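Dear Dr. H.,

I hope your travels went smoothly. While you were away I took the liberty of generating a structure for the chain from your last submission, since the lab meeting agenda had it listed for discussion. I wanted you to have the full record in hand beforehand rather than looking at slides cold. The sequence, exactly as received, is reproduced here:
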Amino acid sequence: MLCKLFHDKDKERERRYNKHYIRFACGSYELVMYDKTYQITEEGLELSYEKLPKGILRYELRMERNLIHKFENKLQTDVNVELLNCFIDNAGILLCDAFLDHFPPACYIREPELMKRIWHGPYQDYVRYEMQSLVKNIVKYGSVDKALAKTKWDKDEQKVYLKRFEDCGFSPIPLRKNFSAWVMPNPSLILRKLYLEKPVNVEYIRSK
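The corresponding predicted structure, in token form, is as follows:
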């Protein structure tokens, strides 16, 4: 799945927009997350009587024609109204499943706390050391792929180490140094809780 950014002739607008927007694309669908309030304000879509909240995180699943065709075959219909009703009735499940496929149910943690959790994890010392080294290299090189390339692990070993992070419930990608919370649930966890109508709790750090 590839990450695709918003593009605009106005590079300053493009830079601002991409702070509030991210899109992942594969052959059959796209996953999009963005700040809906920012989009409404930026594009001048708000109404004078509307009182907009400070931020709305919007999730979108954009299907390509080949995926829609699979639903047509499964439902044995090509009637647009029937397809639309199916997507409306199953929107929550479709969104949750699509995001969960690409965002394992793990949280993001600031580096100092992440290092502590790794060291207090269930693995042997040398494994915990390797996991901490991976985190340091992700910070250093700004990419999981580049960090993995610096290890001596083959493809299977890389999968094993990434699975260890997932089993511990946290991502090897730490939150940035000055992020406003120590721990942040990832997109699939947030979406799942909202679908189940459960609260999403984030303990923010007061800025000095």
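Two observations you may find useful: The longest helix spans residues 125-141. The mean pLDDT is 84.

With kind regards,
E. W.
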